[in-house]
Amino acid sequence: MRLINVAMALALCAVAAFSSQDPVELDASARARIEQTRASIVMVKAVDQSNQTVSEALGFFIRKDLIATGVEIVDRNAPLRITAVTKTGAVKVLSFGNYFLPYLSVETQAEVSPLSVGESERVGLNDSVYMLTDAGEIAAGKVTGSTTLNNSRVFLISLRVDSNNKGAPLFNRYGEVIGIAAKSPDGQSAGLAWPSDLLAKLKHLGEPGVGAGSGDGPRFSGGSTASSTSPAAAATVDTKPVRLSAPAARYTEEARAHGTQGMVILRVLVDEDGSVKAVRVVRGLPDGLTESAIAAARQTKFKPAMKDGKPVAYWIGLEINFNIR
């Protein structure tokens, strides 16, 4: 039987044929957020017993112990000897799979900052998207459409994706990951992007109600993105929650004194009765504004999601802006 080695080295995203469009929509904080993600991007290479490369692609940490990647993991039934290398030394790979996208479960890397996953549901036609280049630049492109692959919606993008940048993170104008780069099926067209809602679900592998399956498309064990203190949320629904109220979030005196403003982005679990049962922070702000946003989110009321004529629990994104007036 073959042994497959998976070696990873910190790498910059090599992009050979990006658009020359200037990323004018990015503010300084978004640019800095994207540039800082380089330390969380890795190269994943699978080689056979003869040390010949079988598959390679970029990947990136979405948890301190989990890497999403575009690599094709072959021969699943063969025994594996998996090793990984970063600038701090060897990283032990514990397992791998293809839950929504290929992933590697690794020993926790305390020094790694997982990338912030944004809301791909908010991505629309002609929205700007961004990727890192090996020249130390941020290249910009556009969403040109969408299609369905393996029962999942994917974005069509104007940025070319090839063997050099397959598996790279794709960012929105806030510097959040809203997709993972993939080659077009014909290998000739502009690139695709698997949406970040798959990455968001992948992040919760190992939690109650979330099981790691193999093969194409989402697989669940009782539900997705469930927590131990809340009901399992439906994976798909007929209608999503609709916000009925929007309680004002308190602007703290500390934030006013420091001139802090911006947007807090949350994911909230809307229960069957339309109340918020759980809150996760996607992007926060200092000076007590994150806590203020969470408090406002918990008071928000929704019309619940519906599936087969019945209300169900469902995770959605929630943005709360803080502006000095």
Sequence-ordered SSE layout with sheet pairings:
Layout: E1 5-10, H1 28-35, E2 41-47, E3 53-63, E4 66-69, E5 83-86, E6 89-98, E7 102-106, E8 128-132, E9 138-149, E10 152-157, E11 169-171, E12 177-182, E13 192-195, H2 196-202, E14 242-243, H3 253-258, E15 262-270, E16 276-283, H4 289-299, E17 302-303, E18 305-307, E19 310-312, E20 314-322
Main sheet: strand order:
1-2-3-4-7-6-5
CATH architecture field of the largest domain: Beta Barrel
Query: Which geometry do the CA atoms define?
Result: globular
Major sheet attributes: 7 strands, antiparallel
What CATH calls the topology of the largest domain is Thrombin, subunit H
* Total separate domains: 2
Global structural class: mainly beta
Number of DSSP helical runs: 4
Estimated radius of gyration:
20 Å
Tell me what you see in this structure.
It is a single chain. The protein is mostly beta strands and 325 residues long. It has two domains: 226 residues, Beta Barrel (Thrombin, subunit H); 93 residues, 2-Layer Sandwich (TolA/TonB C-terminal domain), CATH 3.30.2420.10. Helix content is 10%, strand content 37%. It is built from four helices and 20 strands. The protein has a seven-stranded antiparallel sheet, with no helix packed on it. A six-stranded antiparallel sheet has the order 8-9-10-13-12-11. A three-stranded antiparallel sheet has the order 16-15-20, covered by helices on one side. A hairpin with a 5-residue loop joins strand 8 and strand 9. It is globular, with a radius of gyration of 20 Å. About 15% of the residues have low confidence.
